[in-house]
Amino acid sequence: MLLNQYKFIDLTHTLSPNIPTWTGSCGFHLEIKRDYDQMFRVQQIKMHASAGTHIDAPSHLIPEGKSIADIPIEHLISPACIVDVSKKADSDYEVLPEDLTLYEREFGKIEARSFVILATGWHRFFSNPEKYRNLDKEGKMHFPALSKDAAKILCGRDVSGIGIDTLSPDCSDMDYRVHRLLLGAGKYIIENIADTSAMPPKGGFVIALPLKGSASTEAPVRIIGLIPKHSLG
Ligand SMILES: [Zn+2]
User: Fold this and answer.
1) Cα-to-centroid distance, 3 and ligand 1 (Å)
2) Of 33, 40, 177, 197, whose CA is between 20 and 30 Å from 107?
3) Category of 176 on φ-ψ map: left (φ > 0), alpha (ψ -120 to 50) or beta
Protein backbone atom coordinates (compact mmCIF):
# COMPACT_ATOMS: atom_id res chain seq x y z
CA MET A 1 0.00 0.00 0.00
CA LEU A 2 1.48 3.28 -1.14
CA LEU A 3 -0.02 5.18 1.79
CA ASN A 4 1.67 2.82 4.28
CA GLN A 5 4.93 4.42 3.24
CA TYR A 6 3.94 7.70 4.84
CA LYS A 7 3.39 9.05 8.29
CA PHE A 8 0.69 11.74 8.38
CA ILE A 9 0.95 14.88 10.40
CA ASP A 10 -1.67 17.57 10.91
CA LEU A 11 -0.26 21.03 10.17
CA THR A 12 -3.60 22.71 10.98
CA HIS A 13 -4.52 24.66 14.10
CA THR A 14 -7.83 23.75 15.78
CA LEU A 15 -10.50 26.44 15.40
CA SER A 16 -12.07 27.85 18.55
CA PRO A 17 -13.55 31.21 19.67
CA ASN A 18 -10.23 32.16 21.27
CA ILE A 19 -7.82 31.86 18.38
CA PRO A 20 -5.74 34.88 17.33
CA THR A 21 -7.11 36.76 14.31
CA TRP A 22 -5.86 39.64 12.15
CA THR A 23 -8.32 42.10 13.69
CA GLY A 24 -8.37 40.56 17.15
CA SER A 25 -12.10 39.80 16.90
CA CYS A 26 -13.64 36.40 17.50
CA GLY A 27 -12.43 34.09 14.76
CA PHE A 28 -14.73 31.12 15.06
CA HIS A 29 -18.10 30.61 16.63
CA LEU A 30 -20.41 27.61 16.53
CA GLU A 31 -24.03 28.48 17.14
CA ILE A 32 -26.35 25.64 18.09
CA LYS A 33 -29.50 26.06 16.00
CA ARG A 34 -31.27 22.93 17.19
CA ASP A 35 -30.26 20.33 19.80
CA TYR A 36 -30.46 16.66 20.80
CA ASP A 37 -33.92 17.16 22.29
CA GLN A 38 -34.95 17.49 18.63
CA MET A 39 -32.78 14.52 17.68
CA PHE A 40 -29.83 16.22 15.96
CA ARG A 41 -27.46 18.89 17.19
CA VAL A 42 -27.36 21.34 14.29
CA GLN A 43 -24.75 24.06 14.23
CA GLN A 44 -24.13 27.18 12.25
CA ILE A 45 -20.53 28.23 11.75
CA LYS A 46 -19.78 31.92 12.11
CA MET A 47 -16.22 32.78 11.24
CA HIS A 48 -13.99 35.01 9.23
CA ALA A 49 -12.91 33.24 6.06
CA SER A 50 -9.37 34.07 7.21
CA ALA A 51 -9.64 32.57 10.69
CA GLY A 52 -7.14 29.93 11.73
CA THR A 53 -5.11 27.98 9.21
CA HIS A 54 -6.40 29.31 5.90
CA ILE A 55 -5.55 29.94 2.28
CA ASP A 56 -5.52 33.20 0.33
CA ALA A 57 -6.37 32.74 -3.35
CA PRO A 58 -5.00 35.20 -5.94
CA SER A 59 -8.50 36.78 -6.08
CA HIS A 60 -8.00 37.96 -2.48
CA LEU A 61 -6.12 40.87 -4.03
CA ILE A 62 -6.32 40.49 -7.82
CA PRO A 63 -9.88 40.98 -9.14
CA GLU A 64 -9.33 38.73 -12.15
CA GLY A 65 -7.20 36.24 -10.19
CA LYS A 66 -8.15 32.65 -9.41
CA SER A 67 -10.67 32.14 -6.62
CA ILE A 68 -10.39 29.26 -4.15
CA ALA A 69 -12.51 26.96 -6.34
CA ASP A 70 -10.37 27.78 -9.40
CA ILE A 71 -7.09 26.60 -7.85
CA PRO A 72 -6.26 23.30 -9.57
CA ILE A 73 -6.21 20.42 -7.09
CA GLU A 74 -2.77 19.45 -8.45
CA HIS A 75 -1.49 22.72 -6.99
CA LEU A 76 -2.85 21.83 -3.56
CA ILE A 77 -1.06 18.47 -3.33
CA SER A 78 2.61 19.34 -3.46
CA PRO A 79 6.16 18.40 -2.59
CA ALA A 80 6.97 20.35 0.58
CA CYS A 81 10.07 22.42 1.23
CA ILE A 82 10.39 23.45 4.87
CA VAL A 83 12.69 26.45 5.27
CA ASP A 84 13.41 26.50 8.99
CA VAL A 85 14.51 29.89 10.32
CA SER A 86 13.16 29.28 13.82
CA LYS A 87 16.57 29.52 15.48
CA LYS A 88 17.11 33.10 14.35
CA ALA A 89 13.61 34.49 13.76
CA ASP A 90 12.66 37.15 16.27
CA SER A 91 9.42 39.14 16.08
CA ASP A 92 10.78 41.45 13.35
CA TYR A 93 12.61 38.84 11.32
CA GLU A 94 12.07 38.68 7.57
CA VAL A 95 13.06 35.53 5.73
CA LEU A 96 15.87 36.65 3.45
CA PRO A 97 17.27 35.49 0.10
CA GLU A 98 20.26 34.13 2.08
CA ASP A 99 17.93 31.77 3.95
CA LEU A 100 16.77 30.34 0.62
CA THR A 101 20.37 30.10 -0.62
CA LEU A 102 21.37 28.19 2.52
CA TYR A 103 18.37 25.90 2.13
CA GLU A 104 19.09 25.18 -1.53
CA ARG A 105 22.79 24.63 -0.85
CA GLU A 106 21.91 21.93 1.67
CA PHE A 107 18.79 20.37 0.15
CA GLY A 108 18.92 21.24 -3.55
CA LYS A 109 16.96 23.67 -5.65
CA ILE A 110 13.36 24.44 -4.76
CA GLU A 111 11.51 22.83 -7.63
CA ALA A 112 8.58 24.22 -9.58
CA ARG A 113 5.19 23.28 -8.06
CA SER A 114 6.69 22.92 -4.59
CA PHE A 115 4.90 24.35 -1.59
CA VAL A 116 7.39 26.25 0.54
CA ILE A 117 6.71 26.59 4.26
CA LEU A 118 8.57 29.27 6.18
CA ALA A 119 8.95 27.70 9.62
CA THR A 120 9.65 30.60 11.96
CA GLY A 121 8.69 28.91 15.23
CA TRP A 122 5.98 31.53 15.85
CA HIS A 123 3.25 28.82 15.84
CA ARG A 124 4.14 28.15 19.46
CA PHE A 125 2.33 31.35 20.46
CA PHE A 126 -0.92 30.49 18.67
CA SER A 127 -2.53 29.53 21.99
CA ASN A 128 -1.61 32.99 23.32
CA PRO A 129 -3.36 35.44 20.95
CA GLU A 130 -1.82 38.52 22.57
CA LYS A 131 1.69 37.21 22.06
CA TYR A 132 0.90 35.82 18.61
CA ARG A 133 -0.45 39.20 17.37
CA ASN A 134 2.20 41.08 19.33
CA LEU A 135 0.88 44.64 19.04
CA ASP A 136 3.20 47.58 19.68
CA LYS A 137 2.13 50.96 21.08
CA GLU A 138 1.17 52.19 17.60
CA GLY A 139 -1.08 49.19 17.10
CA LYS A 140 1.24 47.45 14.64
CA MET A 141 1.72 43.72 14.87
CA HIS A 142 5.15 42.15 14.99
CA PHE A 143 5.86 38.58 13.96
CA PRO A 144 8.30 36.92 11.57
CA ALA A 145 7.51 37.55 7.89
CA LEU A 146 8.93 37.19 4.40
CA SER A 147 11.14 39.76 2.68
CA LYS A 148 10.15 41.06 -0.73
CA ASP A 149 13.41 39.86 -2.30
CA ALA A 150 12.94 36.32 -0.98
CA ALA A 151 9.32 36.38 -2.22
CA LYS A 152 10.62 37.32 -5.67
CA ILE A 153 13.00 34.35 -5.65
CA LEU A 154 10.14 32.00 -4.71
CA CYS A 155 8.02 33.37 -7.57
CA GLY A 156 11.01 32.77 -9.85
CA ARG A 157 11.12 29.14 -8.67
CA ASP A 158 7.49 28.88 -9.78
CA VAL A 159 6.29 27.40 -6.48
CA SER A 160 2.58 26.56 -6.19
CA GLY A 161 2.34 28.61 -3.06
CA ILE A 162 3.97 29.51 0.20
CA GLY A 163 2.96 28.99 3.79
CA ILE A 164 3.99 30.54 7.07
CA ASP A 165 3.34 29.79 10.75
CA THR A 166 2.33 33.40 11.51
CA LEU A 167 -0.73 35.53 10.69
CA SER A 168 0.81 36.66 7.40
CA PRO A 169 4.00 36.73 5.34
CA ASP A 170 3.59 40.54 5.52
CA CYS A 171 3.83 42.25 8.88
CA SER A 172 1.23 44.94 9.48
CA ASP A 173 3.55 47.77 8.37
CA MET A 174 4.76 46.11 5.18
CA ASP A 175 2.22 47.45 2.67
CA TYR A 176 1.26 43.86 1.77
CA ARG A 177 4.14 43.71 -0.68
CA VAL A 178 4.56 39.95 -0.36
CA HIS A 179 0.83 39.38 -0.90
CA ARG A 180 0.98 41.62 -3.96
CA LEU A 181 3.94 39.76 -5.40
CA LEU A 182 2.75 36.22 -4.75
CA LEU A 183 -0.97 36.61 -5.41
CA GLY A 184 -0.11 38.79 -8.42
CA ALA A 185 1.97 35.89 -9.77
CA GLY A 186 -0.99 33.51 -9.36
CA LYS A 187 0.44 31.79 -6.28
CA TYR A 188 -1.53 31.08 -3.12
CA ILE A 189 -0.59 31.76 0.49
CA ILE A 190 -1.42 29.63 3.53
CA GLU A 191 -1.24 31.43 6.88
CA ASN A 192 -1.27 30.25 10.49
CA ILE A 193 0.30 26.90 9.71
CA ALA A 194 0.88 24.78 12.83
CA ASP A 195 4.10 23.12 13.98
CA THR A 196 6.03 21.68 11.01
CA SER A 197 9.06 20.53 13.00
CA ALA A 198 8.28 16.85 12.37
CA MET A 199 8.45 17.40 8.60
CA PRO A 200 11.69 16.70 6.74
CA PRO A 201 13.18 19.82 5.11
CA LYS A 202 12.67 18.14 1.75
CA GLY A 203 11.13 14.88 0.57
CA GLY A 204 7.74 15.27 2.28
CA PHE A 205 4.43 16.32 0.77
CA VAL A 206 1.49 18.44 1.80
CA ILE A 207 -2.18 18.15 0.99
CA ALA A 208 -4.00 21.43 1.65
CA LEU A 209 -7.72 21.27 1.02
CA PRO A 210 -9.80 24.43 1.42
CA LEU A 211 -13.54 24.79 1.75
CA LYS A 212 -14.63 25.13 -1.88
CA GLY A 213 -16.65 28.29 -2.35
CA SER A 214 -17.21 29.48 -5.91
CA ALA A 215 -16.31 33.12 -5.34
CA SER A 216 -14.18 32.62 -2.24
CA THR A 217 -11.06 34.72 -1.93
CA GLU A 218 -9.95 33.12 1.35
CA ALA A 219 -10.99 29.87 2.98
CA PRO A 220 -10.20 27.71 5.98
CA VAL A 221 -7.95 24.84 5.02
CA ARG A 222 -7.02 21.47 6.49
CA ILE A 223 -3.36 20.96 5.70
CA ILE A 224 -1.76 17.57 6.19
CA GLY A 225 1.90 16.68 5.89
CA LEU A 226 3.03 13.34 4.49
CA ILE A 227 6.39 12.16 5.77
CA PRO A 228 8.06 9.27 3.96
CA LYS A 229 8.70 6.64 6.64
CA HIS A 230 12.10 5.80 5.14
CA SER A 231 13.22 9.34 6.04
CA LEU A 232 12.37 8.73 9.70
CA GLY A 233 15.21 6.25 10.17
ZN1 LIG B 1 -3.08 36.71 3.69
Assistant:
1) 32
2) 177
3) left
Distance CA 161, CA 147 (A): 15
* C-alpha 229 to ligand 1 mean position (Å): 32
Per-residue pLDDT of the chain (233 residues; tens, 9 = 90+): 788 999 999 999 999 999 999 888 888 999 999 999 999 999 999 999 999 999 999 999 999 999 999 999 999 999 999 999 999 999 999 999 999 999 999 999 999 999 999 999 999 999 999 999 999 999 899 999 999 999 999 999 999 999 999 999 998 766 899 999 999 999 999 999 999 999 999 999 999 999 999 899 999 999 999 999 988 77
- Rounded to an integer, what distance in angstroms lies between the CA atom of residue 103 and that of residue 111? 12
How far, in Å, is the centroid of ligand 1 from the Cα of 1? 37
User: 53 CA to middle of ligand 1, Å?
Assistant: 11
- Cα-to-centroid distance, 168 and ligand 1 (Å): 5
